[in-house]
Amino acid sequence: xxxxxxxxxxxxxxxxxxxxxxxxxxxxxxxxxxxxxxxxxxxxxxxxxxxxxxxxxxxxxxxxxxxxxxxxxxxxxxxxxxxxxxxxxxxxxxxxxxxxxxxxxxxxxxxxxxxxxxxxxxxxxxxxxxxxxxxxxxxxxxxxxxxxxxxxxxxxxxxxxxxxxxxxxxxxxxxxxxxxxxxxxxxxxxxxxxxxxxxxxxxxxxxxxxxxxxxxxxxxxxxxxxxxxxxxxxxxxxxxxxxxxxxxxxxxxxxxxxxxxxxxxxxxxxxxxxxxxxxxxxxxxxxxxxxxxxxxxxxxxxxxxxxxxxxxxxxxxxxxxxxxxxxxxxxxxxxxxxxxxxxxxxxxxxxxxxxxxxxxxxxxxxxxxxxxxxxxxxxxxxxxxxxxxxxxxxxxxxxxxxxxxxxxxxxxxxxxxxxxxxxxxxxxxxxxxxxxxxxxx
Amino acid sequence: xxxxxxxxxxxxxxxxxxxxxxxxxxxxxxxxxxxxxxxxxxxxxxxxxxxxxxxxxxxxxxxxxxxxxxxxxxxxxxxxxxxxxxxxxxxxxxxxxxxxxxxxxxxxxxxxxxxxxxxxxxxxxxxxxxxxxxxxxxxxxxxxxxxxxxxxxxxxxxxxxxxxxxxxxxxxxxxxxxxxxxxxxxxxxxxxxxxxxxxxxxxxxxxxxxxxxxxxxxxxxxxxxxxxxxxxxxxxxxxxxxxxxxxxxxxxxxxxxxxxxxxxxxxxxxxxxxxxxxxxxxxxxxxxxxxxxxxxxxxxxxxxxxxxxxxxxxxxxxxxxxxxxxxxxxxxxxxxxxxxxxxxxxxxxxxxxxxxxxxxxxxxxxxxxxxxxxxxxxxxxxxxxxxxxxxxxxxxxxxxxxxxxxxxxxxxxxxxxxxxxxxxxxxxxxxxxxxxxxxxx
Lengths: 441, 441
Description:
The structure is a homodimer. By secondary structure, chain A is an alpha/beta fold. Chain A has 2 domains: 2-62 and 360-416, Urease, subunit C, domain 1; 64-353, Metal-dependent hydrolases (TIM Barrel, Alpha-Beta Barrel). The first copy, chain A, has 15 helices and 17 strands. Chain A has helices at residues 85-100, 103-119, 132-142, 166-176, 198-211, 223-233, 237-243, 261-270, 278-283, 291-296, 316-331, 339-346, 348-353, 387-393, 421-435, and strands spanning 2-13, 21-30, 33-39, 48-54, 59-62, 64-69, 122-129, 145-152, 184-190, 215-219, 251-255, 273-276, 301-303, 371-374, 400-405, 408-412, 415-416. In chain A, the strands form 2 sheets. In chain A, strands 1, 2, 3, 4, 5, 14, 15, 16 and 17 form a 9-stranded mixed β-sheet that branches. Chain A has an 8-stranded parallel β-sheet with strand order 6-7-8-9-10-11-12-13.
């Protein structure tokens, strides 16, 4: 029995239902899938393979799943920070989007994001933006797996100047996107309950259902949003969406910072999943989502970085560390959001939340070979008592050495194989100089 | 005019009182000090220097200052996480310290810590532990700058089996440590108001004053500590220390999570400084220190990582990001702890807090050449609108390419020059296998 690729001589962290760890172990890849994995038997011959990748004692784990991104917003990374939310949006982000978002800039921003994600061990993302067909082209070039949602909002938006066309534009995307790459699942990204009418929300969910696609929506992000929802609709944003019949399986609620007990019960009963974005919620001072309560209610919770304008990076290792620590200090309970729980959120639960639980998110026989290998020889990873602890509390995106998506070797010895990072840097820097002329190299 | 070393072709972030940034700029080093710095004049010839380091468009900044560490605790990195505080301490950390802390293990743990700190851009640390002379030997070998405090506690401790000898042991350390390295300032590390008697606390502060040394003490870390202080002494830990006359300049209060308005007024009036350790306070679920209130009261606040058992790394870039975001979400104010404020905490304010404000912590003429250079070509640092934003919100320890301490080039092109990382890894792994026999490589 031979494999296309064998990844061996590492600690295999499967994130299967038993959270099995093989130390040392191996993973065999054939026809883009995991064809074998397990502990390395002492004295046994190494399995035959066309290509052998030596993990050199590092950690072999499922590729990370980022459940909420706005990829082109890498263009605005660090453009404006430390500002009141309204000023940040209306004086900086919205004007920059109006003036500088075009098919070309969206493509370069998305390419930069894919390069950053792959180099930091993320193999799948769930994105929502406008001109999403350009995002799809970039993602396809990168070789990543992705769920991509064309934006729907009841305002003029890039590529959709008349909001009356927003559902039609989303339908076109759903109909034509999948041909880009077998690794891309088209989706619907409805901006929020406060920027879309009830009619738009219902039509968008019906469209998603028609295509069997994910329905993503920002919800209950800020206290102001909740106050306004109560003033306008008499109920919380979650209760409002529930009343429209939108909390069903296939819905991904992004943020849910301001969800009370009744909201949580509604989400659990309906079967919607949640994307938790702790660093974005902290940086924008939105609040802290009640994640331990979500988990206790049985809700599927994935981890996300949000866009680069409000984070300012796409490093899920950093996000795992933040999630694990933030919920401990919020609850006063140092056992909250333990390492295993957070790793599951960043892998298998994230995959489940975006409809890819049967495909990716864990190292199990027959699943796609979406694999990240970390080097563990840097001082900050010495010694290793528990590999799961290291992934959450000390590993960084830079520790990633090898990345496979559907068996394709996209990062080899820390270098990206599918995109030209130098070209992307030059193009994005040129765009950034138009956004802010004094921008450095 | 020639220099020993010229660092050029980068963005110079001085962290001087005006927070001047020269883009591009240069720094000239002579006789271990900063002999010149400024913007690079267009068309001007490059200054003459024996060694020229091309920053390649990266960021040239003051070396970071970690105001609270327990360096040997790298040995326990990830040994036990996600546990209730008492169980973590009494079932894991204290037994491991009793059984495995010796002069030899302290030395290797401290070497590992120095390697990690230098490679992630930290040039100065303020440490407190036992067998601190072994820590001093390791720090001297590494070439770092440090304030090192021999531990004082009214219990048996490594190297001080009879607590009656704790002041004498600290005196010996103060008397003999400085000869190790001109870059080491000996200090006193009194464990806490709840593990030292009033007599010990007063004697320790008097000893520090006699030597002109820093007096470090953990204070007001947990709610339980505050409750017990009120029950035992009738006042908060800060008020108790104030009553003993310990809140004077030269005192560094570590944590201060549970400081109320009156405590803050006492600290400000007394002139003590604070070491803020946000990740440790989050991971142990201790709480969130009121840092914006400290700053508003005019208190000098530095940043610290705490020991590796409660963080689990020594990366101050990561700590800056956490500090900036945590205080935004705690206060509900996205302008709290802006990037500049946090960078100052991690550099000049930290240096001031540990008594080195005239020596290090900023790039200014005549100061020691303690310099960190970051590469900015990785995707997560593209584009650069504001270098200060990047240092806080997206840079990572791994972006550090060059580090100088007192003009000595300790990290060159990302490689540590002063210690053998491979040897340290082997020795620490061997120690870790004794602590937990199933430990990986």
